[in-house]
Amino acid sequence: MCLGIPGQIVEVTDSDKKLAIVDVGGVRRTVNIACIVDEAHPAAACVGDWVLVHVGFAMSRIDEEEAARTLELLTQLGEAQAEIQAMQATA
């Protein structure tokens, strides 16, 4: 399964190479923003954008509300997975 994780661009580190720092739940990583940059939305305009990150690339821009919903669902899935593992361990 491929999964995009919501994160917020906090800094563009190299406009020419289209690299930026994305904060995902307090963890900051360098990602490639080439997929979300165009003439109407250059790299410098990306700071503050919420994006879906997959394998080191910001694949699409999303709004803050969608990011919050997605993060909540991912948290719930993680909690469900932990419960399933606990049940398996006691079976």
SSE order and pairing:
Layout: E1 5-14, E2 19-24, E3 27-32, E4 50-54, E5 57-62, H1 64-90
Antiparallel strand pairs: 1-2, 1-4, 2-3, 4-5
Strand order of the largest sheet: 3-2-1-4-5
Structural class: alpha+beta
**Amino- and carboxy-terminal Cα gap:** 27 Å
Order of helices and strands: EEEEEH
Number of strands: 5
Report the major sheet. 5 strands, antiparallel
Parts with pLDDT < 50 across at least 5 consecutive residues:
none
Write a concise keyword list for the protein shown above.
5 strands, 91 residues, 1 helix, 36% strand, 30% helix
In short:
The chain has 91 residues and is of the alpha+beta class. It has one helix and five strands.
Q: How does this structure look, described?
A:
This protein starts with a strand and ends with a helix. The mean pLDDT is 91. It is α+β, with helices and mostly antiparallel strands. It has one helix at residues 64-90, and strands at residues 5-14, 19-24, 27-32, 50-54, 57-62. It has a five-stranded antiparallel sheet, covered by helices on one side. Strand 1 and strand 2 form a beta hairpin. It contains one helix and five strands, in the order βββββα. Helices cover 30% and strands 36% of the residues. The radius of gyration is 16 Å and the shape is elongated.
